[in-house]
């Protein structure tokens, strides 16, 4: 009985909390802007650089940033963003786990009348309004593969192409695949039927699947990776097969990718990679922050705008004049300048 | 008093955080907290049964994933051909017009029934392997986790299944009057678990098996059947969790709950359910989940670097495991001393 009394006494504070629920005190100072930055993970150089660019810029503007890493779990991201909404943040920047969960989460922000911006990975549909910045992945991939095809044509033989496909739950991945096929289908005399290797945006999966694919079809001599972060896995598979050769050497596999990270830049400099599609990371980060801050200032609660990053294909031909437009190159140069005595 | 220790800590911690972040006790945040409690509690209750009999169920999250996609394949109203046309189940189980029972009034009940049956079936298989084949629970459920996670991805080719019926989504997001549907379901589950553990002979058998399986066997307890029932109940609870999480995310997801296992076991241990078997109560599971969710929610409110949150959560779980180890060690020393005297 005494135990029950104690228990009831302990429940009282919870009851009091409920009664006080919805109190009007605020967590933040008046005029202080708080933004929730929810990202799915930081597994690639692209996401790390984007995370750095966004958080540092916001902090420089004296904006409080609540960072949430969902560890590739859409449910966790939903819970984190609901928590941020309950905290009355002024705006949300999200890198979603996938396009489908993005739709649901945008809906939550819409219901709470909090402006939400989606960075680089677009929602699966436009049913809920949001600010979205995304690269023109189809065009960038198509231009990159078109250059690779032009190089291949000089070899005067039919090529065996292979594409490392990303997670097909990600719209970017689908568009990159479409861009690859647009360029391949434009050269029917040049290519055999493409081999598709699923990666699910995972390094270990890529390694296993690429090894298996090359055991079945060793004649592969044209490889396009849907993301630059998979180059180490490509090298790990091609090197033991004697296929990791620089441009000009017999047995060079024509190689290209998309993102524009520092690994791709270094491999292009060394002559292993023929071309890489570049997303303008800094443009995307600046554009999404500007759009969100503008909406907050204007009091827009459900802003809708799709901002497109046109990107470009960095090739061995245009590298000299355009390499500084590649974010991976700029990061590398900045790091080198910082390390210099 | 010690029974409610975790609740006291939770309330004190809540009050402390409330003093710093007034939104902590806001209506929206309280609603958030509880909406995060229900699905996790369903999983922890199931895990508790297995922990009480001295086992562990690492396959709960993969049961969630596989049941999530199977249920969605039956009831989804539409499938996107661009994503699913290559799937071997296309035109067999689902098509552009939807899942097997799309549009039928039976779609949702049938999907839920199949999700529960599959959850129970996987639990039965796990239990048989542990009880009849004497395989280590860790290994059986780890392999099951790998197998069923892979199966979920294979069945969908890593695609999320959207367009679930509104009546299904309402299970995760809707309410009956002022009471959330998820709460009704999980409170019913908790009451069922309480009745089994506290008011039935089966409950006593669970504890007996967990405390000393040999003694239990000698005393006439059907130990194998008891262990099997524990895993079956865990599978059933995982399927309930799958229903709630799928409904709130509005999609059948092959990666559902991929990173949830540590939360489930962490919340159970924080509540005081022993990893060494023989100890656990429904109330402890509730307290463990409450503490875990409040901790998670409070950390989301702090402008911390994202990795700090992981470190703090990991540290709290580690402390709970350490306390469990110390408590078990002291108890076994006392038992040994009593035996000698």
CATH superfamily of the largest domain in chain A: Response regulator
Distance between the termini of chain B: 29 Å
Strand proportion of chain B: under 5%
Spans where pLDDT lies below 50 across 5 or more residues of chain A = 15-26
List keywords for this structure.
heterodimer, A: 341 residues, alpha/beta, Rossmann fold, 6-stranded parallel beta sheet, 6-stranded mixed beta sheet, 17% strand, B: 341 residues, mainly alpha, two-stranded antiparallel sheet, 2 strands
Would you give an account of this structure?
- The complex is a heterodimer of chains A (341) and B (341).
- In chain A, 46% of the residues lie in helices and 17% in strands.
- With 341 residues, chain A is an alpha/beta fold.
- Chain A has 2 domains: 32-134 and 281-308, Rossmann fold (3-Layer(aba) Sandwich), CATH 3.40.50.2300; 137-279 and 314-339, 3-Layer(aba) Sandwich (Rossmann fold).
- Chain A has a 6-stranded parallel β-sheet, with helices on both faces. In chain A, strands 7-6-8-9-10-12 form a 6-stranded mixed β-sheet, with helices on both faces.
- In chain A, helix 9 links the parallel strand 9 and strand 10.
- Chain B is an all-alpha fold and 341 residues long.
- Chain B has one domain (2-16, 37-326).
- In chain B, strands 1-2 form a two-stranded antiparallel ribbon.
- In chain B, strand 1 (175-176) and strand 2 form a beta hairpin.
- Chain B is globular.
- At the A-B interface, helix 1, strand 2, helix 3 and helix 4 of A face helix 1, helix 2, helix 11, helix 13 and helix 14 of B.
């Amino acid at each position: 009985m005494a135990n029950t009394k104690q228990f009831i006494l302990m429940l009282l504070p919870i009851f009091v909390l409920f009664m006080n629920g919805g109190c009007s005190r605020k967590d933040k100072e008046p005029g202080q802007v708080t933004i929730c930055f929810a990202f799915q993970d930081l597994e690639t150089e692209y996401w790390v650089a984007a995370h750095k660019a966004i958080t540092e810029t916001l902090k420089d503007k004296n904006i409080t940033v609540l960072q949430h890493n969902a560890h590739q779990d859409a449910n966790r991201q939903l819970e984190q963003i609901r928590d941020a909404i309950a905290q009355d943040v002024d705006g949300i920047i999200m890198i979603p786990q996938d396009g489908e969960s993005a739709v649901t989460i945008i809906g939550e922000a819409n219901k709470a009348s909090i402006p939400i911006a989606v960075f680089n990975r677009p929602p699966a549909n436009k049913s809920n309004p949001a600010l979205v910045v995304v690269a023109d992945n189809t065009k960038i991939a198509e231009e990159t593969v078109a250059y690779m095809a032009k190089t291949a044509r000089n070899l005067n033989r039919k090529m065996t192409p292979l594409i490392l496909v990303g997670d097909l739950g990600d719209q970017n991945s689908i568009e990159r695949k479409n861009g690859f096929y647009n360029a391949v289908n434009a050269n029917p005399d040049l290519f055999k039927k493409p081999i598709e290797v699923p990666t699910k945006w995972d390094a270990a999966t890529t390694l296993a699947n690429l090894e298996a694919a090359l055991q079945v079809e060793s004649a592969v001599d044209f490889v396009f990776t849907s993301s630059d972060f998979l180059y180490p896995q490509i090298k790990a598979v091609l090197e033991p097969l004697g296929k990791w050769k620089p441009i000009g050497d017999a047995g060079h596999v024509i190689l290209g990718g998309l993102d524009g990270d520092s690994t791709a830049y270094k491999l292009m400099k060394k002559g292993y990679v023929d071309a890489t599609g570049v997303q303008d990371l800094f443009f995307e980060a600046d554009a999404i922050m500007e759009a969100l801050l503008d909406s907050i200032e204007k009091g827009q609660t459900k802003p809708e705008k799709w901002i497109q990053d046109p990107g470009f294909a960095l090739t061995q031909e245009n590298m000299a004049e355009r390499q500084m437009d590649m974010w991976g190159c700029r990061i590398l140069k900045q790091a080198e300048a910082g390390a210099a005595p | 008093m010690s029974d409610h220790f975790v609740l006291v800590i939770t309330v004190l911690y809540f009050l402390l955080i409330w003093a710093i972040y007034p939104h902590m006790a806001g209506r929206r945040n309280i609603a958030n907290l509880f909406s995060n409690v229900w699905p996790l509690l369903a999983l922890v209750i199931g895990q508790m049964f297995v922990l009480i009999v001295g086992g562990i169920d690492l396959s709960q999250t993969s049961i969630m994933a596989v049941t999530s996609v199977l249920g969605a394949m039956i009831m989804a109203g539409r499938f996107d051909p661009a994503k699913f046309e290559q799937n071997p189940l296309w035109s067999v189980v689902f098509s552009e017009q939807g899942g097997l029972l799309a549009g039928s009034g039976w779609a949702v009940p049938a999907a839920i029934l199949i999700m529960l049956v599959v959850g129970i079936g996987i639990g039965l298989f796990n239990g048989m392997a542990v009880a009849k084949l004497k395989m280590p629970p860790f290994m059986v459920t780890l392999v099951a986790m790998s197998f069923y996670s892979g199966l979920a991805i294979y069945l969908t080719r890593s695609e999320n299944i959207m367009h679930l019926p509104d009546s299904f989504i309402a299970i995760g997001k809707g309410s009956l009057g002022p009471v959330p549907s998820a709460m009704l379901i999980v409170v019913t589950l908790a009451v069922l678990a309480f009745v089994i553990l506290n008011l039935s002979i089966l409950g006593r058998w669970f504890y007996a098996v967990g405390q000393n399986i040999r003694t239990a066997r000698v005393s006439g307890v059907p130990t194998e059947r008891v262990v099997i029932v524990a895993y079956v109940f865990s599978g059933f609870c995982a399927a309930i969790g799958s229903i709630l999480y799928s409904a709130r995310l509005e999609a059948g997801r092959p990666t559902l709950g991929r990173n949830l296992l540590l939360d489930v076991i962490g919340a159970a241990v924080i509540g005081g359910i022993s990893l060494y078997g023989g100890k656990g109560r429904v109330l402890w599971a509730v307290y463990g989940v409450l503490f875990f969710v409040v901790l998670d929610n409070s950390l989301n409110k702090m402008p911390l670097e994202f990795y700090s949150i992981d470190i703090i959560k990991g540290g709290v779980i580690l402390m709970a495991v350490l306390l469990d180890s110390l408590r078990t060690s002291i108890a076994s020393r006392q038992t040994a001393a009593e035996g000698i005297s």
